[in-house]
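Section handout 9: paired folding examples.
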Amino acid sequence: MYAHANDSASPIPAARFDDLDLDRPEDEEEWDRRLMALATARIAAERVRLEGLGIIDANGDLVSRELPPDMLPESDTTLETG
C-alpha cells in the first residue's frame, strides 16, 4: 500500500514509501523526512482554511468562543432526523 505525492485527484498532499526499503537506516530517515514535509504541508493548508472560514486569526487564536446559534440550548435544531 502506498500514497502518491502530488496526486492530482486529491487536494491533500501525500508521501510515497513504495520506493523505500524501511529496513535500511537511510531509507527510514528519508521516510521520516517525507512524513515531516507532508505534515507541514497539511498543517499549513488547514491553517489557511481555518483562517479563511474566520475560525482562527493570523496568530492561530480562536476568533470567538461562542457557540453558533444552532448549537445553543434554546435552538430548535434537533439531532433527530427521522
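Moving on to protein 2 of 2.
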Amino acid sequence: MIDPKQLRQSAAEIRENLARRGFDFDTDAYAALEEQRKALQVETESLRNERNSSAKQIGKAKAQGEDVVPLLEAVKDLGDRLDASESRLEAVQAELRKIELDLPNLMHDDVPDGKSEEDNRELRRWGELPEFNFEPVDHVDLGNNLGLLDFDAARRISGSRFTVMHGPLAQLQRALIQFMLDVHTNEHGYQEVYVPYLVQEQALFGTSQLPKFEEDLFKTDGDTPFYLIPTAEVPLTNLAREQIFEADSLPRRYVAHTPCFRSEAGSYGKDTRGMIRQHQFEKVELVHMVAPADADDALELLTGHAEQILQRLGLAYRVVALCAGDLGFGSNRTYDLEVWLPGQKNYREISSCSSYTDFQSRRMQARWRNPETGRPELLYTLNGSGVAAGRALVAVMENYQDKDGNVRIPEVLVPYMNGTEVIGKAR
C-alpha cells in the first residue's frame, strides 16, 4: 500500500508513475474525498468536544442541585448529530481506503516502458541452447512415453490442471527440491522455514493478494475461512507482521519449500497442455527483509541466487526486466528468469524476483529500528522463486532427453537420485 501521506502530498507525481502501468489514478476524486474527510473529522471532533463539555456541565449542575432541564434540552439532538457525523466520516474513510488498496505499487525508475510481456527488456543470457540430432519433444510426450507422467489419472482424481508422477520422475522432482534447499541454506545463508499451507485473510492482505486477487485463491467454508497459499511468499513474509527488528538482525533471508495452489482464474485456454500452469505445484521460495537502503542490492543478490540453481543444472536461460505494463500489482521492480524449453522452442518463466519496497510492510506493520533515529520504520521486502520445482522438472526433462526418449540426470542431481544417471521407460 502506498503511503497515504505521500498520496496527499504528491498526488500528481504518483498519478504519472502509475499511468506508466496503464493505471488511471483519479487524483481529483481522491482529493475531493480527502477534503470531505478533513471537514468531517473537524465536525466530528467538535461534536465530541461539545458532548463531553455538556456532560461535564450537566454533571456539575446536578451535583449543585440546579435544574438541568434547560441543559438537557439544549443538547437533546447532539447524540444524533454526532452519530450522523461519525457515520458519514466512516463512509468517506472507507471510500478512501478502497482507493488506497486498489492502487498498485509505485515503480522503480529503472522499470522499462511497455504495455505487455512483448515489451520486457532482456538483460542477459546464460548457457548455450542444446542441440539435438533428432526432433526434441515436449515433457508431456516424454512423460507419457516413459510411462511415468499420468494426466488421465490426475483428471479422474481431481480434474484438469493436475498431475500424477510415478517412480523416478516423482523422485526427480523431490531431488530438485532438496538440491535447491541445500544450495540456498548451505551456501547462500538462507534460514529454512516450515510454514502453514493454510492461512487466514489478514496474511493474504499483508502480502497484497487480497482484496484484489481473491478469485485466484482457493478458500474453505466456515465463519473463519482459510485460504490455501498461492505461494510460500505469504506465510514467509508474514513472519515479520507486527514485528520490530533490530538493525543488526537484518537482512533476514528465509527459504521454504511448499506446495502452491492457484485457481488460475482468467487463464482459461492458456497453457492447458502439461505441467506449465497447474492448480497445484511445488516451489522453493526465497524471501528477503532488508533496510530500505539495501533493497536494490538485495534484488540483484536474490536474482543471482535463483540463477545459480539454473546454472548448476546446466539449463540455458535469460533474465528480463519486466516492463511497466507487465509488472505485478505489488512490485516496485521485477526480474524474470526464463528457461529454455526445447519442446516448445521458447523461453518460459521459471522464477520471478521482485522488490516490494514498503508496499507489503505497511499493510503488515513490519518494521525495523533505524539506529540513526532510534525509531521504528517500515522495512523493505523482496521475494522470488528459487526456483519453481515443476517447471525445473519440465526443463530438465526436455533439455536432457535423448533420441530413445530417455532422460539423463544432471550431474548435480545424481547423488539425490541414489546414483541413477538415466530415467528410462517404466517396466
